[in-house]
Amino acid sequence: MLELVLPDSLKKIGAHAFYNCRSLVQVSFSDALDDIGDGAFKNCEKIKRLIVRRKSGRMRGLKDILSDLHQEIEVRIAGENGQEEARLVFPYYIMNYEENTPARIVNQIAEGSGVEYRNCISSGGIDFLFYDRLFDSNIAVDLKEASARIAMARLLFPVSLTQKAEEQYREYLLAHARGIVRQMIDADREQDVMDFLNLTLTDHAFLTETIEYARAGGHSQALSALLNYERSRFGRQRKSYDFF
């Protein structure tokens, strides 16, 4: 994984500075960075995560970087002590162009709710209430897997999370729990599985079913993590022939 770590002292990035850097996967910077030139991160198609170190409370740099990235992006906000304080997932969007021949103009049309989610960020910070209100439209427009990541991130780091939004996220994850967890197991995302289970949305019967799914699919690492979780939460010890 190629990670770019920008110093806290950096306040400006020139236009097209990292244009077409297709190996970049993660970028870490402080919120003191608030002057980013046009297209600085354009075509950085493999970036999956942005880590923002909170210093000033401004988010202009984050907004500008996200505007260059059309793919789904996970944003993690770290406090002054370095601990993660918030996590948000911004869905993908694509830009299509529709030509109006009689008028000799080309209309730009955004597809996907990623544009709306990115509008939750201003130079002054993140509007969490606006972000949460978009969840219904996200379910209608985007892939369900993205919706699951949005919901999990908000429940794991519930900054400014209202009771209504919390209930909405929990209801969604519970309603789709089987498909969500199995997809995580198939993708070898054991930590995501543990994060889901730690939200304690499901019961022991669901966990038993999930353990059997991991065993049947030969997912040894997920199986080991699930068995350890079962012991820690429910105090159950399984004999070796139960899962091999």
Low-confidence stretches: none
| Class based on secondary structure composition and strand pairing | alpha/beta
Question: What is the tally of beta strands?
Answer: 11
Major sheet: arrangement of strands: 1-3-5-6-7
Strand content: 15-25%
User: What's the alpha carbon Rg, rounded to whole Å?
Assistant: 20 Å
Distance between the termini: 34 Å
Shape: globular
Overall number of domains: 1
Q: Please bin the fraction of helical residues.
A: 40-55%
Total count of helical runs of at least 4 residues:
10
Secondary-structure blueprint of this entry?
Blueprint: E1 2-5, E2 12-13, E3 24-30, E4 35-36, E5 49-53, H1 60-68, E6 73-78, E7 84-90, E8 94-100, E9 105-111, H2 114-118, E10 121-122, E11 125-126, H3 128-133, H4 135-141, H5 144-156, H6 163-175, H7 177-186, H8 190-198, H9 204-216, H10 220-234
Parallel strand pairs: 1-3, 2-4, 3-5, 5-6
Antiparallel strand pairs: 6-7, 8-9, 10-11
Quick structural overview:
Helix content is 41%, strand content 21%.
Characteristic terms for this protein:
single chain, 244 residues, alpha/beta, two-stranded parallel sheet, 10 helices, 11 strands
Task: Summarize the structure in words.
Strand 10 and strand 11 (125-126) form a beta hairpin. The protein contains ten helices and eleven strands. Strands 1-3-5-6-7 form a five-stranded mixed beta sheet. A two-stranded parallel sheet has the order 2-4. The protein has one domain (2-175). By secondary structure, the chain is of the alpha/beta class. The mean pLDDT is 89. The two termini are 34 Å apart. 41% of the residues lie in helices and 21% in strands. Helix 9 (204-216) runs antiparallel to helix 10.
